[in-house]
Amino acid sequence: MAQEMEVAPMSELTPGTVIGAGRYAVGNANGELFAVTRRCRHLYADLANGRVDKDGCLVCPWHGSKYDVKTGRMVRGPQGIFAKIPGLDAATIALTRVLPLGRGEVTVRGGTVYVK
Ligand code: FES
Hints:
Strand order of the largest sheet: 5-6-7-8
Radius of gyration: 14 Å
CATH architecture: 3-layer Sandwich
Strand content: 25-35%
CATH topology: Rieske Iron-sulfur Protein
CATH class: Mainly Beta
Bound molecules: FE2/S2 (inorganic) cluster
Low-confidence stretches: none
Distance between the termini: 9 Å
Shape: elongated
Order of helices and strands: EEEEEEEEHEE
Number of strands: 10
Helix content: under 10%
């Protein structure tokens, strides 16, 4: 059974915020809390240092891949120089269909956010 971990006071997890907690990047996507495993499927950047965009997707801090935080799947591949590599976008997106980011269970009790 997964061990529950304290993340932060709810007041710190405002919309658009992402915080690292153990193996998870815990965030607030347009008012909905989420937790996904924090290593990007491209080159393993720490997604806890990413941001939530206007679509509620988690954006990787290194090369801008976007993840659907509900499914853990990549919805846009790496950007910049990586966007010019033929097939890379489709390959990394396909990878996360098979191996999406893991998702944690987020709860709020007494004004504090927890994940397991
Ligand atoms: S490490 Fe995340 S997009 Fe490259």
